[in-house]
Design goal:
Rossmann fold; alpha/beta; about 525 residues; AMP-binding_CS; 4-coumarate-CoA ligase activity
Length: about 525
């Protein structure tokens, strides 16, 4: 049987069997298309006047380029696993709750309030009923305009139970940015803090601006201003009154917006299936790629409105039965106090936070020995900075992950963080996740590149991602250099700002660095 699968624009791959592949390549300016042909011939048009016929053979791999080049398609060193992705996200996350109902689930760093797994699940159910009584139905969108707090979790998973969709927004956005997302996502209800309500109040000059009470409902987690409701009214609902809703794996559950580093933020639809699949790739199986124990306390200093925190910190922790320490906003000293007080064992971080800990002279005044694992993501963590962090926290395993909002989101993860770990190089973000394939192509020609050659990273699987520059070394570890759109072109050379920034930041007198052109 002959099959055709998607590939870069200048390549069509035709395989005679799943383990074989045929690559037909053309110059960048040519468009390649597959046209009908006699039963065992597939003509591939490389130019209007030129036809290439490739004969399919049952047991052969056939290549126009003589099939002499290695494929350089990479898979995880961990075996693929069966993935349970046919159940709703909330059901999947709380599937094992009967094993630890009284265990701490959410720890509020600002006031010390602790919610057990039983209480967390119950409050999600109550919030679901409360949202239903306010008119939220399957497919409707609610906005979470919140700092890290338990109500974020109750609202997100409560909406999931209704088949509704949550869109997350940065509370520090301008009014114009928030209104743009409200209109684009067709938000019907917003859950926020009272200090941000002013950003939701359109002035008289904005005739087309959405308005509180008319276009959307506002619920605040603290004392509500005029025309707003208090979140506690949602929790007054009877959890037994949750509407019966049929939720399909392909139904949307989360509508995060991309980072917007190379343009305006863009909405990304994530389904129940895509999120459960991505969580499973990290924490399920006998040897999970990201090993979280039910005894772990996972730091949530990263904002939950960002996909990194909502996926890795919140959802993966819930699936594993770990506790989540919620920190409303970052403060270096308070961070170290909380790590010491609650014995944080797993710390998902970003490079600026790593830099702050490495260069902070007060670190030695706190007992941070409970940290056993540190995961860095959202931007490349340079080798020099990673090595400096390891020397300061020698008891901790340090690894990086790589992903993007549009891809669900994790694409590669350090195997140093696995239950049965593998050695991982500093600066590497690990290998491609399980149940997926990765390769690197030349951004100009579309040709597949080999080891240690920088090009565009492509993923094959349920989601295909493109847009970052990186390479895979001889040990099949992925290294991210920079985003394609951030590359500086100088006298015909591609210069990665992140590499220069890493060199500058390695100097002990440099706190941070930014390279522009």
């Amino acid at each position: 049987m002959i099959y055709v699968h998607a590939a870069p624009s200048s390549m069509i791959s035709i395989g005679a069997a799943p383990s074989n592949r045929i690559d037909v390549r053309a110059a960048p300016s040519n468009m390649i298309s597959v046209r009908s042909a006699p039963s065992n011939k597939i003509p591939v048009r490389a130019a209007p006047s030129n036809k290439i016929y490739v004969r399919a053979a049952p047991s052969n791999m056939i290549s126009v380029r003589a099939a002499l080049l290695p494929a350089f398609v990479y898979r995880s060193k961990l075996p693929d696993i069966p993935i349970t992705n046919q159940i709703p996200l909330h059901t999947y996350c709380f599937e094992n709750i009967s094993q630890y109902p009284e265990k701490p689930c959410l720890i509020t760093g600002s006031n010390g309030r602790i919610y057990s797994y039983y209480e967390t699940h119950l409050n999600c159910q109550k919030t679901s009923v409360g949202l239903s009584k306010l008119g939220i139905r399957k497919g409707d969108v609610i906005m979470l305009l919140l700092q890290n707090c338990p109500e974020f979790v109750f609202s997100f998973l409560g909406a999931s139970m209704l088949g509704a969709v949550s869109t997350t927004a940065n509370p520090f956005y301008t009014q114009a940015e928030i209104f743009k997302q409200i209109k684009a996502s067709k938000t019907k209800l917003i859950i926020t803090q009272s200090q941000y309500v002013k950003k939701l109040q359109a002035d008289d000059s904005g005739e087309n601006a959405p308005r509180i009470g008319k276009d959307f409902i506002v619920v605040t987690v603290d004392d509500p201003p005029e025309n707003c409701l208090r979140f506690s009214t949602l929790l007054d609902a009877d959890e037994k009154e949750i509407p019966s809703v049929s939720i399909q794996p392909e139904n949307a559950v989360l509508l995060p917006y991309s980072s917007g580093t190379t343009g305006p933020p863009k909405g990304t639809i994530l389904t129940h299936k895509s999120l459960t699949s991505s969580i499973a790739q990290q924490v399920d199986g006998e040897n999970p790629n990201l090993y979280l124990k039910s005894s772990d306390v996972v730091l949530c200093a990263l904002p939950l409105f960002h996909i990194y925190a909502i996926h890795i910190v919140l959802l993966c922790s819930l699936r594993a039965g770990a506790g989540v320490l919620l920190m409303p906003k970052f403060n270096n000293t308070i961070l170290m106090q909380l790590i010491q007080r609650y014995r944080v064992s797993v710390a998902p971080v970003v490079p600026p936070l790593v830099r702050a800990l490495v260069k902070n002279p007060k670190v030695g005044s706190f007992d941070l020995s409970s940290i056993r694992a540190v995961l860095s993501g959202a931007a490349p963590l340079g080798k020099e900075l990673e090595d400096a962090f390891k020397s300061r926290f020698p008891q901790a395993v340090v690894g990086q992950g790589y992903g993007m909002t549009e891809a669900g989101p994790v694409l590669a993860m350090s195997l140093a963080l696995a239950k049965q770990s593998f050695p991982s190089k500093s600066g590497s973000c690990g290998t491609v996740v399980r149940n997926a394939e990765l390769k690197v192509i030349d951004i100009d020609t579309g040709l597949t590149l080999g080891h240690n050659q920088s090009g565009e990273i492509c993923i094959r699987g349920p989601q295909i991602m493109r847009g970052d520059i990186g390479f895979v070394d001889e040990d099949e570890e992925v290294f991210i250099i920079d985003r394609i759109k951030e590359m500086i072109k100088f006298r015909g050379f591609q210069v990665a700002p992140a590499e220069l920034e890493a060199v500058l930041s390695s100097h002990p007198l440099v706190a941070d660095a930014a390279v522009v052109a």
